[in-house]
Amino acid sequence: MSEPNTGITALPEKHLRMISFFLDKELFGFEIEYISQVIEPTKLSFVPRAPFFIRGVLNYRGKVIAAMDLAQFFGMPAKPVDPETRVLILDPAQCGAEFHLGFLVDRVERIETVPILRAVGKPEADKPYISGVVNLGGRIFNVINLEKLLEEIEGYFS
Q: Most buried among 8, 47, 77, 122, using CB within 10 Å?
């Protein structure tokens, strides 16, 4: 006996590939397509009159990369660079940035495969750069809206 046709077709589930990382003790993430490299921080050179969240610049493969302390930008306390600190170097072609930028993060957790339906949680009103919350097996992290974040950052440099 065949199943009745309900008119509902099961669609293949779509996924996002995200990188998850810690800032202070909170877990964050955004789509991995925006990242060109994850590196250990090298010596940062001071930049006079830079915004408070720019910890300096570093030379990576002949390019000057502005090292942004993402935690400080979000209003969290600054943390010294330690052996777990990483720099997430953004791919300017993917994110539409007009400059080379790297996010200093406390620790990279892992690459996540997130079903799109799970990736949309309700963001809190006081967190304008958070587009949603993801819960995978009890691990909850905030999804960063990179476009909004980059718009705000570019405003500091115009």
A: 47
Whose CA is closest to 86, among 100, 69, 72, 64?
A: 69
Number of domains in the chain: 1
Q: How many CB atoms lie within 10 A of CB 36?
A: 18
Write out the DSSP string of 50-68.
Answer: --TTEEEEEEETTEEEEEE
- Tokens linked to 38: 């994850």
DSSP SS3 for 76: coil
Q: What share of the chain has pLDDT > 90, as a percent? A: 44
Task: Please check whether residue 80 is in contact with residue 45, taking contact to mean a CB–CB distance below 8 angstroms.
Answer: no
Distance CA(90)–CA(99), nearest Å, equals: 10
Evaluate if pTM is beyond 0.90: no
